[in-house]
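> forwarded from #structure-qc
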C-alpha cells in the first residue's frame, strides 16, 4: 500500500491509512489474528511510572488525534498508544496543506495546529473502542486561548479525558500553536503543572483510585542545556512522572532535500531521522540531570531497533515513533521489539532496564 499512499498528498494519505486500519481491524476476530502475529513481549512486563507495559515501543501522539483508531492500532504490536494532542474544544487546526514528506531525509514537516474533535468527544471515542494496551492522552492549549489563560484551558481537557487515560501528557512544545512554547518557561510551566497535579490528586480521591494518574510533560528539541535543566527542576519539584523527549524541531540544518523544496513546505515541525541525534542528546542530558530517577519516553527518528537502542542507552525507558510508522509500515513495532531483544542478547545485558542509560555519559549536547 505504501507506494500508492505516497502518491497521495501527505494528509490525505494519513487520513486514508487511519480509516483503512480502523476498517480492516474493526472486528475483534480480525484484531485477534493480527495481534497474534504482531504482538511481541520479549522483555516480559516492564513497569514504568507505576504502570505495566507489555513492550517498550509506543505510537506517539499525532497519528490518531481523536482516538478513533486506537483500538485497531493496538493490534499492530505497540505496547502503548498515545492519542491527541487534544484541546478543550474542537478546532480545525491550520489551513491545508499542512503535512509534507521529505523522503530523501526520511522526515516529515507538519504544521497541523492541534486539529481535533475536542476532549469530551475524544473520551467518548475511546470509551466505545478501548485499546488493548496502555493508553496515553496528550493535551494541548487551544489556539484561541492566551498563554496567561492556559491553565483553565488545560484543566478542562484534563477533566474530560481523565477517566479514559492510563497516563496524561502535557504538550507545551508544539511549534504549530502560537506562543505555546512559552509555557516551557520555568515559572509558567511550574504554575501549569502544579495546577494539573492538584486536579490530578483531587480526581483520584473522587474516583477512589490508589494513586493519581501519571502526568508527563513533552518538551521541544530546540531548548538549550540550561533550559532543559530548568524544566527538569520544575518537573522534579512538581512530582511529574516522566518527560517525553522530544517533540518536533523548527530547525532545518543538514537536510538532503533541496532547499527550494523545503522552503515550499513553509513553517512547521520537522520529525524523523534528522531529529534523532538531537533527541538522543536531550534524553542523555535529562538522564544525567535526574540520575536516572525520572522515566524518559524517547521519541524522534526511530525507524529500526538500532535507533531505539540508541535512545535506550541514552536513558529512555520507553520509545515512541510516528514518522517511522509512516515510512516503515504496520509491522514496525514487532520488528523493533524483536531486533531489540537480539541486540540485548548480543550485548549481554541481563534485562532491558540494565541497558537504560548505559551510555548516557557519552552523549554530549
Amino acid at each position: 500500500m505504501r507506494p500508492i499512499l505516497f502518491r497521495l498528498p501527505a494528509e490525505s494519505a494519513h487520513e486514508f491509512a487511519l480509516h483503512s486500519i480502523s476498517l480492516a481491524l474493526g472486528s475483534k476476530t480480525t484484531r485477534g489474528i493480527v495481534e497474534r502475529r504482531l504482538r511481541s513481549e520479549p522483555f516480559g512486563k516492564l513497569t514504568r511510572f507505576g504502570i505495566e507495559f507489555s513492550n517498550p515501543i509506543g505510537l506517539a501522539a499525532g497519528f490518531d488525534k481523536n482516538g478513533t483508531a486506537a483500538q485497531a492500532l493496538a493490534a499492530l504490536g505497540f505496547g502503548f498508544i498515545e492519542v491527541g494532542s487534544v484541546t478543550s474544544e474542537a478546532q480545525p487546526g491550520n489551513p491545508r496543506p499542512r503535512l509534507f514528506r521529505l523522503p530523501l531525509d526520511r522526515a516529515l514537516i507538519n504544521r497541523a495546529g492541534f486539529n481535533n474533535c475536542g476532549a469530551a468527544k475524544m473520551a467518548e471515542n475511546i470509551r466505545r473502542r478501548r485499546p488493548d494496551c496502555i493508553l496515553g492522552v496528550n493535551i494541548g492549549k487551544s489556539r484561541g486561548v492566551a498563554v496567561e489563560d492556559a491553565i483553565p484551558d488545560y484543566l478542562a481537557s484534563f477533566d474530560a479525558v481523565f477517566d479514559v487515560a492510563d497516563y496524561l501528557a502535557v504538550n507545551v512544545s508544539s511549534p504549530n500553536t502560537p506562543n505555546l512554547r512559552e509555557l516551557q518557561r520555568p515559572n509558567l510551566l511550574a504554575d501549569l503543572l502544579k495546577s494539573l497535579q492538584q486536579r490530578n490528586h483531587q480526581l483520584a480521591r473522587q474516583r477512589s483510585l490508589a494513586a493519581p494518574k501519571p502526568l508527563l510533560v513533552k518538551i521541544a528539541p530546540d531548548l538549550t542545556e540550561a533550559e532543559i535543566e530548568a524544566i527538569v527542576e520544575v518537573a522534579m519539584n512538581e512530582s511529574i512522572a516522566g518527560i517525553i523527549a522530544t517533540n518536533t524541531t523548527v530547525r532545518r540544518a543538514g537536510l538532503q532535500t533541496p532547499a527550494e523544496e523545503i522552503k515550499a513546505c513553509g513553517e512547521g515541525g520537522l520529525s524523523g531521522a534528522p531529529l534523532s541525534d538531537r533527541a538522543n542528546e536531550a534524553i542523555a542530558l535529562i538522564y544525567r540531570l535526574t540520575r536516572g530517577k525520572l522515566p524518559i519516553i524517547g521519541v524522534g527518528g526511530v525507524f529500526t531497533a538500532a535507533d531505539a537502542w540508541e535512545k535506550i542507552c541514552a536513558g529512555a525507558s520507553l520509545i515512541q515513533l510516528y514518522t517511522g510508522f509512516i515510512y516503515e509500515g504496520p509491522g514496525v513495532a514487532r520488528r523493533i521489539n524483536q531486533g531489540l531483544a537480539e541486540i540485548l542478547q548480543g550485548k549481554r545485558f541481563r534485562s532491558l532496564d540494565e541497558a537504560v542509560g548505559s551510555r548516557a555519559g557519552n552523549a554530549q549536547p
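QC bot note: The chain has 14 helices and 13 strands. The longest strand covers residues 80-86.
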